[in-house]
Amino acid sequence: MINKPYKEKSVLLIDDEPEYVQWLYDYLVAKGFEVDMAESVGDALKFADATGYRLYLVDLNIPAGAWTSPSPMPEIYSQYKGLNVIRYVRSQGNSGVRVVAYSAHENAEIHAAIDNLYCNYVVKGRARDIKAEIETVLQHDPKA
Amino acid sequence: MSDNTDEPTNIDVGVLFLANFVHQVVNPLNGVIGTLDNIHDGTYSGDIVDQKINASRAQLEQCVTLLRNLAYLSDYFFEESDSTHLRKPREVVWSPLQQTIIEAIQFFQILARQKRIGLELNDARKQQHRIFIRPELLRQIFINFFDNWLKYGLKDQIVKVQVSTNNANDLVIEVQGKSIPFDNAGANSLFDFGVRDRSAIDKVAQGSGIGLYICKQIVVKTLKGTISAVHQSTSALSTFRISIPKENWKYDK
Fold it and tell me: Contacts of residue B28 in chain A, CB cutoff 8 Å?
């Protein structure tokens, strides 16, 4: 585990269209969470480097920002750049249980990549599904 | 690529366009669904509910705008085909330019505020012009322009619309503001169908690649005018310019 401050009641929400996930931000704040928002892979990694979060919510379809991949990655990591964030936070000792990925798309390639990263996935357009996933994550012991 | 070459085929462009189009429609709808669920489960209550419903209305209207582009797309594709029986009857009138621009600005008021972008028409009261075109087509030009700016424009700025005439007596409409950079050498391709999808890999995947294409079709095919874009890297200013020949515009008496 990398030595950095861990915030128990915190969420890193990563989406390049914050106006469309304002409802999710408001929902988390109403539940007492401090929410940091990032709009690109580069921004997300900066936040993830500085702080450990209780929950990572990651839109798969985000831009790279000021980030370039240090090594060649499978094509799907270029298509859905949010996967790079998930891979990074997982490499920092974060359990996959604490990561919820989402996107507007659903296909076998996405599911295979998500399975490889051992995290959760929700298709956009089902607000209650994502809220249910969040509840599941929060019920899980973060120290486990 | 479908044919194992570096150049995307029409099928590649079409598939990417559809995938991106789904993304474009699902995202605002997802925002509306989430907002409704927050109202239902009590996350939102009291005065804020009205505010959230209003923001949702704006998001739904943006979806409709995108869908409307599809209808115009089919219009122009039918024009290029031999299927003349598919063409709809058209009512071309002298449409008010400044009023149309102001309506398009008002349409994006809420989203623009969220993005901290101001949209302004300069000297709106000085001179009024009319354009010989179906009103909904004129409106769609500016809806697509402003939609584009809210996607690729920089925050904390005012995007200005300026109307003037040039030496050839063309009516020139310029929309200028700060945006993410683009290469001037390839600027014309911004108005190609699906170009957004071809270049989406290293940029924010927001546009559908259809809006500016529709603008070009309307300006070039219907108004017999020209459309162009330039970017100044030092100032980050981008200028989108439409030029309309004299036979298709007049002063509003």
Answer: 20
**Residue B3 within any structural domain of the chain:** no
B30-76 pLDDT, tens digit each: 999 999 999 999 999 999 999 999 989 988 988 888 888 877 777 77
B37 to A128: CB separation less than 8 angstroms, yes or no = yes
CA dist B148 and B211 (Å) reads 8
Please report whether residue B4 resides in a domain: no
Give the mean model confidence (pLDDT) for residues A112-129: 92
Last residue of a domain, one of B55, B85, B115: B85
Residue B66 contacts residue B208 (beta carbons within 8 Å): yes
CB contact under 8 A, B23 and A105: yes
Q: Do B114 and A21 touch (CB under 8 A)?
A: no
Q: Closest partner residue to B30 among A16, A20, A62, by Cβ?
A: A20
Q: Same structural domain for residues B197 and B115?
A: yes
Residue A53 maps to a domain: yes
- Name the token pair of B10: 């029409």
Q: Are strands A99-103 and B171-178 parallel, antiparallel or unpaired?
A: unpaired
Residue B25 maps to a domain: yes
Domain count across chain A = 1
Domain count for chain B: 2
DSSP B90: -
A131 has a chain B CB within 8 A of its CB: yes
Q: Which of A43, A38, A46, A52 is nearest to A2 (CA)?
A: A52
